[in-house]
């Protein structure tokens, strides 16, 4: 058994690869192969490194237990960290290795398992240790509907630090997942699978994604919002329309067949590209005036970094904060504690800190508190 403070780190090396290339996830060999075919780049290691960097002050005070190679070892700096590497990983890895690593960490008495991935990785950890070992998600997936993830890798580091020093209690965090095949076809089919025991820090954790029930009032608001947006679109300006029913009401107002869960490119009232990748978005905005229109995720409040990784930090830097318009019905916004952004670019995330202007009705904006 381990002595003193200890932290387990498990990285899903392929988590999040499908996001920027418009795949909605990488569950399954076929989806992963398609992600590579489209030129997807691994991003989980960088997310894990951002988490570990936030714990650098503890490198000699905590035993970091991790796996070989891309499953964790590669995310830890070479020197100064008190590290124990399990004989798991090092080659191609999958759900079996994640479960094996979590069980090994439980047997060693690790105080907290920090896993870097998405909803599928959360399910694997839950299957292995249930609620017996405290766990914390470092967000790196595409969808992340579960309520077990920190808002950002940096937030995860702060939560882990406070928990290891006995400053945070535990709560039950929901582990949910969606049917990726249905999701790629524009249908959301999700379910609650179970729970993990997670540190209770509401201001730094994301909640479980909650769909806003349709009402006559919310439908009227979506139509009013869409009407105002369409009336104020400029010829020659490219519009990147994010996922969600609020934004997709704009497609309906324009009479175009856009995607519900992807990013569409619109120019002069016409659909230029349906379900665009990050690369296609960059090509569409090159040398042009452009704007980004997004809506926050229900309850979680994310406008970037959850399900719309195609609008990346690189895309945002190319256009600037002033190019972003945020839409939401009042009903949806009332269920959101704060607006958040998790682009993987800390400077870009900082653009939205403090408050975000949200269009909630025809030519009606309100300021919403934000945390990034």
Question: What does this molecule look like?
Answer:
The strands form four sheets. The chain has a seven-stranded mixed sheet with strand order 10-9-8-11-13-15-16, with helices on both faces. The protein has a five-stranded parallel sheet with strand order 3-2-1-4-5, sandwiched between helices. With 372 residues, the protein is an alpha/beta fold. α2 (44-53) packs across α5 (153-164). The longest helix has 16 residues, at 216-231. The protein has two domains: 6-199, Probable inorganic polyphosphate/atp-NAD kinase, domain 1 (Rossmann fold), CATH 3.40.50; 216-370. The relative contact order is 0.11. It is elongated and about 65 Å long. The model is unreliable at 182-187 (pLDDT under 50). It has helices at residues 29-37, 44-53, 95-108, 119-129, 153-164, 180-184, 216-231, 245-254, 278-285, 313-319, 330-334, 346-351; strands spanning 6-11, 63-68, 82-89, 112-117, 135-139, 170-178, 190-199, 238-241, 264-267, 270-273, 290-294, 302-304, 324-327, 340-341, 354-361, 364-370.
Short description:
This protein has two domains: 6-199, 3-Layer(aba) Sandwich (Rossmann fold); 216-370.
């Amino acid at each position: 058994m381990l002595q003193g403070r200890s932290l387990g780190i498990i990285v899903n090396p392929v988590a999040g690869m499908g996001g920027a290339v418009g795949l909605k996830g990488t569950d399954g060999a076929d989806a992963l192969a398609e992600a590579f075919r489209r030129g997807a780049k691994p991003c989980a290691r960088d997310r894990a490194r951002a988490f570990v960097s936030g714990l650098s002050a503890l490198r000699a005070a905590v035993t970091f237990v991790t796996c070989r190679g891309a499953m964790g070892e590669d995310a830890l700096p070479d020197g100064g960290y008190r590290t124990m590497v399990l004989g798991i990983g090092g080659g191609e890895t999958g759900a079996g290795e994640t479960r094996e690593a979590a069980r090994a960490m439980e047997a060693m008495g690790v105080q907290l398992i920090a896993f870097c991935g998405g909803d599928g990785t959360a399910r694997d950890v839950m299957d292995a240790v249930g609620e017996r070992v405290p766990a914390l998600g470092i967000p790196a997936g595409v969808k992340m509907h579960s309520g077990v993830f920190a808002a950002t890798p940096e937030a995860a580091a702060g939560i882990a630090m406070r928990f290891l020093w006995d400053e945070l209690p535990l709560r039950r965090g929901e582990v949910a997942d969606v049917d990726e095949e249905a999701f790629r076809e524009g249908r959301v089919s999700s379910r609650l699978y179970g729970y993990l025991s997670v540190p209770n820090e509401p201001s730094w954790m994301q909640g479980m994604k909650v769909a806003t029930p349709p009402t006559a009032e919310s439908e009227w608001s979506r139509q009013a919002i869409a009407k105002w947006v369409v009336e104020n679109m400029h010829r020659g300006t490219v519009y990147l329309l994010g996922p969600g029913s609020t934004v997709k009401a704009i497609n309906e107002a324009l009479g175009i067949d856009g995607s519900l869960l992807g990013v569409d490119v619109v120019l002069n009232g016409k659909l230029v590209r349906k379900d665009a990748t990050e690369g296609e978005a960059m090509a569409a905005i090159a040398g042009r005036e452009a704007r980004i229109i997004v809506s926050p995720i229900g309850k979680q409040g994310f406008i970037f970094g959850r399900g719309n990784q195609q609008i990346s930090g690189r895309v945002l830097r190319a256009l600037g904060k002033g190019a972003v318009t945020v839409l939401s019905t009042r009903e949806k916004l009332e269920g959101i504690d704060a607006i958040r952004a998790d682009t993987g670019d800390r400077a870009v995330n900082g653009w939205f800190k403090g408050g975000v202007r949200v269009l909630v009705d025809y030519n009606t904006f309100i300021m919403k508190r934000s945390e990034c």
